[in-house]
Amino acid sequence: MTVFDFSDDAVLVKALAARDPDAFAYLLDRYHSTLVHLAQQYVPNRAVAEEVAQETWLAVIEGIDRFEQRSSLKTWLFRILVNIARSHGVKESRSIPFATDVTLDEEPAVDPRRFRRFVLHGRGQWKAPPQPWTDPEQQALDAETLTVIHTAVEHLPPAQREVLTMRDLVGWSSAEVCNALEISEANQRVLLHRARSKVRGALERHYDEGRRS
Q1: 138 lies in a domain?
Q2: Contact 164/192 with Cβ under 8 angstroms?
Q3: pLDDT at residue 141, as a whole number
Q4: φ, ψ (nearest 5 deg) of residue 120
Q5: Element (H, E) at 84
Q6: Contact yes or no for 88/77 (Cβ under 8 A)
Q7: What's residue 4's pLDDT?
Q8: Residue range 17-66, pLDDT digits in tens
Q9: Is the pLDDT confidence value at 138 over 90?
Q10: Are residues 121 and 171 in the same domain?
Q11: How far apart are alpha carbons 36 and 161 in whole angstroms?
């Protein structure tokens, strides 16, 4: 019995093209849960996210013969997922088409009201600087804190939510995100910075309210 190294993209693609069930099982085990997790950022519930993932797998089966390996199999797979999820998101009023043209002055990453109006020695000054978080491990386990994070991510603009999810929740590198979404590195960096700033701001407000109560 021949054992294939499916961690090698070329081997895996060849096996998938040959309709090797072990190759599909390998791909399913490795990526299905991540596909569903990412799809949930576009659609209203897990049931629809599962449908999106199933459609993605069908598209892979139908399209593997046309895959030219100009990108990694992983990038190709998630690009299919994103396109299908966006379509479902628009239908479900959960998302809007991704905007690829993001300018640096479109919106501030941090609320300008947190800075003083005048600057000294060429540097801005905080009126309300970011506060350090104590006992981060305990806070990460706190259900209320996680709810705040999830809510903050939920309310991000779709493009920012998309990039933040891929980078911080799925764990992709900036290059992988750029390839999957077909955006520039500068675009990805701006979207990620804004998204992280908004989530951090939501956490700071949550902790401030906790201190005052």
Answers
A1: yes
A2: yes
A3: 47
A4: -120, 135
A5: helix 73-91
A6: no
A7: 77
A8: 999 999 999 999 999 998 998 888 888 888 999 999 999 999 999 999 99
A9: no
A10: yes
A11: 15
